[in-house]
Amino acid sequence: MDTIFFLILRRMRAPLLTLIVVYAVAMAGLALITAQDAAGQPTTMSLFHAFYFVSYMSTTIGFGELPNAFTDAQRLWVSISVFFTVAVWIYAVGNLIALLQDAALQKAIAELSFRNRVRRLTQPFYLVCGYGQTGGALVRGLTDRHLQAVVIDVDPERISVLQLDNQREFVPALCADARGPQMLRAAGLNHPLCQGVVALTNVNEANLKIAIASKLLHPRIKVICRADSHETEANMASFGTDHIYDPFDTFALYIAVAIQAPCQTLLVDWLSGYGGDVLSEPKYPPSRGRWIICGYGRFGKAMYKHLKEQGFELSVIEAAPHKTGIPPEGVVHGRGTEAVTLEQAEIGRTVGLVAGTDHDADNLSIIMTALSLNSDLFVIARENHIQNQELFDRVGAHAIMNPSTIIAHRIRVRLVTPLLADFTNLARFQDESWAGVLVSRIIALVDERKPYVWEVTVDRTQAFALCDADQRGRPVTLGTLLRDPRDRDRQLLAIPLLLIRNDERFLLPDLDDRIHEEDRLLFCGREEARWHMDWGLRNLHALGYVATGESRREGAVWRWIAAWQRSR
């Protein structure tokens, strides 16, 4: 607010002073010139009447002469004054219009409005720094689950795009540099409802500064960052950044796990996807043979590392090996878009291809050329721009790596269903047959649609009825919770995936397990199962019905009706 007042006073100082001086001179002239009263006798005009007349004279409203008809001297003075006062008003109004169009004032007003909106937030929110492809996908994922987000981005075009996007929740946004501590405070870093800071700019240095500033200003806040280099990742980890995501290492590790455990990979894909989407098909990357990696940049090196650990024979094609480095096996010089280059890398006896350059056009060309030479390839494509999604879907790639989508997807899962990460870590220690059985159970529930995944914390906020029953010594089992509150003989279409109690984790808990206060549960199933479960968690009568089969009528009217029925 102080900045706005300062800008207004600085820009309007000269027009206001000029207006005051011209008004004062015009009023003084009218007060000094001899006037006449109603009887025609000489008199003088009071300063109040002079001010009143000049006020409407300068705006050319024209109420007439007052308090009496003017003398010729007064009319001459008014004729001169009207030109000066009107000119000064035009000058002042012109400066006011220019002030309203001033970029600095508009920025100050926008920042003040943004601060007020953030201050009035009443729901927990996440501060997202950067609204590019990654930030946009993350904000959409959060708002689709009715979670609040606040956005800062240095690019005004991205803020305009956000304001035009059809988000399910209103998202306060400000065009500013999030590296500054003042901007982080303005965006609600110290707000009691701020749940965490997510740094997703396309500049590693900016993400690093945001993470450092957030931890220094609010040491207990959760900070999640994107890092595209191992050096930046190590720097972020050194001062306590909670979660750091490198899209290239993340995807390369995903492919490595898919090679060893395709069924577990499919299970995680279904559970971490958007509930209600069509079930994805399993990926079966070849488990042995030769791979060709086109592009030895950040993504190519990550794929090289994880495929090498799997024991694959590798060939690398790189157009600028003097910049990227050369692997121990050597490199084939070229882009990979030419058939001769792929043939030098022995495409004929290759089982897998990674098109991982920085240019989507080159990656598409590599895939088309390679498939024309060897149609049995398992193809992994790097998609740098999301607007090319349809082209990559049609080119025949089996797995597509989009850095923005990967990071947004992982962070969304981390923020929306944090227990899913615990489930995934425990599931990795299970074998493929265990994952296959669970996949079959999910298919039987969801009917070719991805399951909805939700968490339940047994506390007074989410499960009032359950807490009340626990305190009264009425045990409620997990199987009871999975009964339909409309008909207790029917089972809700949901599967309990994880139970956490006193820091102990139980994978696929038994339905006979008793539920206690402060337990945390992870479920998957149909969306309607979630809403029906919430009924039993929050409503004492619904929980009593699914637990005992009795539907007690405790209201005065219902008791009267019950007594009347018994008396008949």
Can you describe what's shown?
This protein has four domains: 100 residues, Helix Hairpins (Orthogonal Bundle), CATH 1.10.287.70; 124 residues, Rossmann fold, CATH 3.40.50.720; 166 residues, NAD(P)-binding Rossmann-like Domain (Rossmann fold, 3-Layer(aba) Sandwich); 98 residues, Alpha-Beta Plaits. It starts with a helix and ends with a helix. The protein is α/β, with parallel strands linked by helices and 568 residues long. Helices cover 51% and strands 15% of the residues. Helix 5 links the parallel strand 3 and strand 4.
Compose a concise summary of this entry.
With 568 residues, this protein is an alpha/beta fold. 51% of the residues lie in helices and 15% in strands. Helix 1 packs across helix 2 (47-58) and helix 5 packs parallel to helix 17.
Helical fraction: 40-55%
Number of domains: 4
Q: Give the uncertain stretches in residue-range form.
A: none
Class from secondary-structure proportions: alpha/beta
Keywords:
4 domains, alpha/beta, Rossmann fold, single chain, Helix Hairpins
Write the layout of secondary structure elements.
Elements: H1 2-32, E1 35-36, E2 42-43, H2 47-58, H3 72-100, H4 103-119, E3 125-129, H5 133-144, E4 148-153, H6 156-164, E5 173-175, H7 181-186, E6 194-199, H8 204-217, E7 222-226, H9 230-238, E8 243-245, H10 247-260, H11 262-272, E9 290-294, H12 298-309, E10 313-318, H13 321-324, E11 332-333, H14 339-344, E12 352-355, H15 360-373, E13 378-382, H16 389-395, E14 399-401, H17 403-416, H18 419-427, H19 432-446, E15 452-457, H20 464-471, H21 478-481, E16 483-484, E17 487-491, E18 494-501, E19 504-507, E20 520-525, H22 527-538, H23 540-548, H24 556-567
Parallel strand pairs: 3-4, 3-6, 4-5, 6-7, 7-8, 9-10, 9-12, 10-11, 12-13, 13-14
Antiparallel strand pairs: 1-2, 15-20, 16-17, 18-19, 18-20
